């Protein structure tokens, strides 16, 4: 690909050749999340006049789980991937569905669920929503990743619910050779966009392996997603005030040349 074709608002996908990030005055961001969500993020950055480089650090693997008929009182989705990676049973479509956030709720409605409630974007608010809307003792079917973030199972069981969790997908780090292209432009990236703790762990390890000090900015959807960058002391860490895509785009738009919202201190905590 001819790097002279890059302009403000360009989106570069991971199957394209690397480019010369110095050719444009626009800021270049590495979007690390998986498709299709990475395209939503790129659209937001394009509106800000930035270049997006789409290189997911995780791959989503469907587990082809068989979801047997059961006497569930409600369905829980803690990610949009869980919605996309399962085949809805017709007898579940009228059950109350509790989704971790608005995007996951939209995916659930698109899948045919008719009674969908949206939490505030994280596991804690999802637990709160379930407790508000579902009677204690209810049977909850949680469709999730193989290793879901947070301990929703433990929290609901402690509150008196009966929960069954079924893994319908898993996320695995991409092979290191997939990131070779990023390594060649790392010192010219303005920022890296992180949407999950697992992605944060992969990227932080990659940065440590590639460059002694990387002084760019890392934009994280939550403190948990930011935590792995404790070991990347030179990076500027920005954290969204709410775990949503809208807050992430606003964070990037508002950051400019400001100081980050928090730094990691020497003890490994936030200050």
Element string (H = helix, E = strand): EEHEEEHEHEHEHEHEHEHEH
CATH class label of the largest domain: Alpha Beta
Question: Biggest sheet: strands, sense, closure?
Answer: 6 strands, parallel
Which residues sit in consecutive blocks of at least 5 with pLDDT less than 50?
A: 1-8, 16-23, 259-271
Query: Strand order, biggest sheet?
Result: 1-3-2-10-11-12
Secondary-structure-based class equals alpha/beta
Q: Name the average pLDDT.
A: 86
* Name given to the CATH architecture of the largest domain: 3-Layer(aba) Sandwich
Q: How are the elements arranged and paired?
A:
Elements: E1 11-12, E2 28-31, H1 37-47, E3 51-54, E4 58-62, E5 74-77, H2 80-84, E6 97-99, H3 102-110, E7 116-118, H4 123-133, E8 139-145, H5 152-158, E9 162-173, H6 180-185, E10 191-194, H7 197-210, E11 217-220, H8 223-226, E12 236-239, H9 245-255
Parallel strand pairs: 1-3, 2-3, 2-10, 5-6, 5-8, 6-7, 8-9, 10-11, 11-12
Antiparallel strand pairs: 4-9
Helix pairs in contact: 1-9
EC number: 4.2.1.75
Keywords: Lyase, Porphyrin biosynthesis
Organism: Hyphococcus luteus
């Amino acid at each position: 690909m001819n790097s002279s074709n890059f302009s403000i608002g360009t989106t570069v996908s991971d199957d394209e050749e690397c480019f010369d990030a110095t050719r444009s005055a626009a800021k270049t961001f590495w979007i690390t999340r998986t498709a299709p969500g990475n395209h939503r993020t790129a659209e937001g950055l394009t509106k800000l006049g930035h270049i997006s480089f789409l290189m997911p650090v995780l791959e989503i693997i469907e587990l082809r789980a068989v979801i047997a008929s059961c006497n569930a009182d409600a369905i829980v989705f803690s990610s949009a991937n869980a919605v996309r990676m399962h085949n809805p049973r017709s007898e579940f479509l009228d059950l109350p569905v509790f989704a971790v956030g608005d995007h996951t709720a939209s995916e659930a409605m698109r899948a045919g669920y008719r009674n969908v409630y949206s939490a505030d974007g994280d596991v804690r608010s999802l637990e709160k929503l379930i407790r508000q809307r579902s009677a204690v003792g209810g049977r909850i079917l949680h469709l999730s990743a193989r290793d879901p973030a947070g301990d929703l199972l433990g929290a609901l069981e402690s509150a008196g619910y009966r929960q069954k969790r079924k893994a319908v997908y898993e996320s695995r780090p991409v092979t290191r050779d997939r990131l070779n292209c990023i390594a060649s432009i790392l010192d010219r990236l303005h920022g890296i966009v992180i949407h999950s703790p697992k992605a944060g762990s992969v990227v932080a390890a990659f940065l440590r392996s590639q460059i002694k000090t990387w002084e760019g900015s890392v934009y994280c959807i939550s403190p948990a997603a930011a935590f792995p960058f404790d070991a990347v002391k030179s990076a500027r860490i920005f954290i969204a005030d709410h775990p949503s895509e809208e807050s992430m785009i606003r964070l990037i738009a508002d950051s400019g040349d400001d100081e980050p919202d928090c730094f990691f201190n020497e003890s490994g905590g936030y200050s």
